[in-house]
Amino acid sequence: MRRLNRRTIAHAAAGVLAGVVGMSVAHLTAALLTPASSPALAVGTAVINATPTPVKEWAVRELGYADKPILIGSVLLGTIAFAAAIGVVARRRLRLGAVLLAGLVLLPAAAVVLQPLFKISYLIPTLVALVLGPAVLVFLTRALNANETPEPASQNTPEQPTVHPSDADTERLSSRRNVLVGFGALTLLSAAAAVGGELVVRSRAAIANLKLPRVGKALPALPTGLEEKYDGISSFRTPNRDFYRVDTKLAVPIVDQDSWTLTIDGDVERELTFSYDDLRERENVEHDITLTCVSNEVGGKLVGAARWTGVPLKDLLDEAGVGDRADQILSTDVEGFTISTPLEAALDGRNAMIAIGMNGEVLSRTHGFPARLVVPGLYGYVGATKWVTKLTLTRYDAATAYWTDRDWATDAPIKLSSRIDTPRPLSNIPEGRTVIGGVAWAQQHGVAKVEVRVDGGRWQQAELGPDAGIDYWRQWYLPWVAEPGSHQLAVRVTDRDGTLQSTDRATPFPDGSSGIQDIVVTVG
């Protein structure tokens, strides 16, 4: 039984190694072609698309930026488990095992084919895995089976020459050594392919020798924020590396700016197409705008403030000539993902733009290079398409987008909100003089005042930090003498139209969270 268990484990390992070799070499192939064509990533994307909205919300809320690595890891672990079982089956029925492993590869092939902008070349990585995986399984299984051959008898027969025990032992040791060498070589191959794939992706993701064009009317430098004086308050300008990222991409699109274009079509007088250089050569503008994800919970971190550089969206639409039928802009990214934006939001005078820069730098691939849509006052899922390549003017009753197909609200204005950054919820702080501080935002109207309540008492007006316009958040702070014990802190914001932040509690689905952030801290 012990020998049987060892043999079963060895064949399971052979199945795993066959699957890993196939996946890793396919990943390297995809990195050289199109990262999204990687079989593992295609399956992960299919899982994202099929996941119910409540589960997606839970993942964003509980897992944060780790949701994508966890999903990819889960897909890989599931694949490995199936491959191990297939390896055990192949020990007795090699042909069936090879067929089952090929079938395991064909599932990602279906996911690849179902991608919105599928090209036949996307199947190349899957075909690599389809050939390589079963071939490795056959090789390893045959080697293991040969090593399991019973010891030859040490007797003379008319048909068989004499085999001494020492010769048999030597032959078995040689066979085992060959199996181990084969396992080791294939393990190194898979590791090299996996690492090589990541290096290729990183190399291709590098954006070399690009600088932002000069803007027509440069904004003055942002003033020093309260974070310089009060530890814990969010930076007035969110650094690019810290800016939140929420999207459906498991692999960031690698877009060549020289071949990329932005097309405006649909209900327009003339269809227009702009190259990356066309956008750079137009008069660019700067706007300070805070973006918020609709998945942001009350007091959440899925919000960031940046200075965006780009071309006014209205200028491009005016040049195309807006028709009289459309009521939405259906924007499409380079992989066919769609977002639906109210047309009115592009034409009502707000600072909507096609951004090519962020905080004085060219957009990173993570944040939408070469260009993205930025529409202040709207949650990202309706106004911030990254990697955008097409703007189609159409009607809501004629075309729907990814998130609206999943029952998120069609119109999604950002709700008034405020957040306590310091002290942190459930933290322990020393007694004495300190501050309560954080940020608040009231897009399209601007922050008029922020108020703080301690232990259910009266609302006290906080001091506001610098002002960068109605579409940008405001920092705030309130001096506080912290006395020993447990304390309850709450915050609310009022905009310049006199609208007070809602006290009604609502989850992010379907049109954004609302309610007052209320935290507990311990002093002493």
UniProtKB/TrEMBL annotation:
- Transmembrane annotation, as ranges: 12-33, 70-89, 96-114, 120-140, 179-201
Q: Hey, what's the signal peptide range on this chain?
A: none
* Compositionally biased region (Polar residues): 148-160
Is Manganese tagged as a keyword?
no
Q: Which UniProt keywords apply?
A: Membrane, Transmembrane, Transmembrane helix
Q: Where is the Oxidoreductase molybdopterin-binding domain?
A: 250-399
Which molecular function term from Gene Ontology is one that the record holds? sulfite oxidase activity
SUPFAM superfamilies hit by this protein? E set domains, Oxidoreductase molybdopterin-binding domain
What are the GO BP annotations of this UniProt entry? sulfur compound metabolic process
Q: Which domain of life is it from?
A: Bacteria
Pfam families, alphabetically?
Answer: Oxidored_molyb (PF00174)
Region annotation (Disordered) ranges: 148-171
**Which protein, by its recorded name, is this?**
DMSO/TMAO reductase YedYZ molybdopterin-dependent catalytic subunit
Species of the source: Nocardioides panzhihuensis
Taxonomy of the source species: Bacteria, Bacillati, Actinomycetota, Actinomycetes, Propionibacteriales
